[in-house]
Amino acid sequence: MTPDAVAALAREYLAQDRNPVTRAEIEALLAAGDTARLAPLLAPRISFGTAGLRAEMGAGYARMNELTVIQASQGVCAYYLETVPDFKEKGIVVGHDHRHNSAAFARLTAAVFASKGVKVYFYRDLVHTPLVPFGVGLLGAGCGVMITASHNPKQDNGYKLYAGNGCQIISPHDKNISDHILNNLVPWTWDHELVNTSPLVSDPSEQVRAAYFAKLKTLSVFHEKNATQHVKMCYTAMHGVGLRPAVEVFSTFGLTPFVQVAEQVQPDPEFPTVAYPNPEEGKGALLLAMQTADKHGATLIFANDPDADRLAIAEKLPSGSWHIFNGNEIGSILGSLVLESLKISGGAQRPLAMISTTVSMHMLKQIAKQEGFRFEETLTGFKWLGNRAKDLEKEGYHVAFAYEEAIGFMVGDAVRDKDGISALGFAAEWANHLASQGKTLHAHLMSLYEKYGYFTSNNGYFICHEQPVINALFDDIRYGRERVASQAGAQYKFELRYPTEIGGSKVVWVRDLTVGYDSAQPDHKPTLPVSASSQMLTFELENGALITLRTSGTEPKIKYYTELRAPTLDQARTDLQAVVDSMIEICLRPAAHNLKTKAD
């Protein structure tokens, strides 16, 4: 944009923004003529996708602030008023976490809907994210909004939208809502107090919490035995909102209270003890929990992420070292234990199904094959898992479990989304039961390997903030670095020239969900949804290794997911590491593309 265009956009923004802090930031830059700093704040406009909104907080159309939250809410409201019968009566559920500005964003979201005569169920206190989709289902609401940035850094915030089925939205709803946002940019209201004065606004917290924990109690199969402690457990909320529901789910299951990581269990938007408030980051994120557990003699650690929709687990081994389970290991453990719970409680009343994502380890698929229940995989994200679970329910299946490798688990059917609290209660009960038999979660995992095969995964990511670099990287993989133009020239811009060998093993299958190519299909068209706006490539090697490369929808990351099954766990890990090293050298080429790691 030219300096004049940037200045004009800044004046347009100031005509809409009523927040004194963000107004002052734009006014100062405009007065100084600093269009270089103004431009990235104003354009491109923060986009509304299937993950809703998530970005750094600050002034401008490209940031999370009161104006962009109001504009998003107006688009959502207009869309649902247009498409959902009786939406005003059905209403919306609005919740928020503890992050900076979360309460204000939630209050303004509620005000937008109330200003149009829509009933608003407004959680006044902090809630963990699963209470929003659960509330949508319980109350029969038309949609739900949770203000949270989950495990993102402290400077970020987000706006997560759930449809009337209690699942995260999927396409084409995101595109339709984006269009409605652009048609409703002028603020309808800017009333922080409307949630206190409007008769349309009520707080359903007591009713929803009671129903939620009553539902979770049905997951317990050892309730009468849980009061006897067989393993000491430690818990951290990672400075988030998880402590209250974690305490309540332990009480609901009849479990002995856990040891608390005092420095991390209370909500704190500054996240002072962790560089990244993400328990998936491993030992660095769980260091305080390990120290606390060691001090109190606990041998099992549970950690929720800040909005408590995900769960991490670590266990002290007989050697004295801590084993941090990755998401695939937890998913395999929980899936197998859900199956055991169903056997104890009399079995599924309908045909059983479990779901995972295409980038998650295939051990659950092998369990399903040997145990005789239906398994399906979806694209990455619980928006796909949740909606597919709903579809399978309509087909008569009991969808008892779903997971994605990023420590997201759906245990039972309380919500059709990831839920770190239901997973916490279920995992803690089973850990206590296994301990009563002299077993550990890690030992249980080893027994699964012996029965179903030695699977291992090796996942990671590189950071890149420049979309053109990301696109060029994937095009290099897809078309070869020379990008030879196709002589046939019709279906693809360039001739597809994927790698033919990785890690000394031949590539036997390629699926590209960006351009819509699957070498295993007769017509070369994938069976999973294709999206040209996101990058996703999968390779299968002759040695059985699977590799998926994709971009993140919420973070500036290029992620890789790999797995391999072998006769022993050591061999699987060794062989897979060779594949990963080769893949990084051949495909990602971090030095050539100036990719960064967290350590950089």
UniProtKB/TrEMBL annotation:
Residues 46-183, 211-315, 327-452 form the Alpha-D-phosphohexomutase alpha/beta/alpha domain. The keyword Calcium does not apply. InterPro entries: A-D-PHexomutase_a/b/a-I, A-D-PHexomutase_a/b/a-I/II/III, A-D-PHexomutase_a/b/a-II, A-D-PHexomutase_a/b/a-III, A-D-PHexomutase_C_sf, A-D-PHexomutase_CS. Its cofactor is Mg(2+). It comes from the Eukaryota. Belongs to the phosphohexose mutase family. This is Phosphoglucomutase.
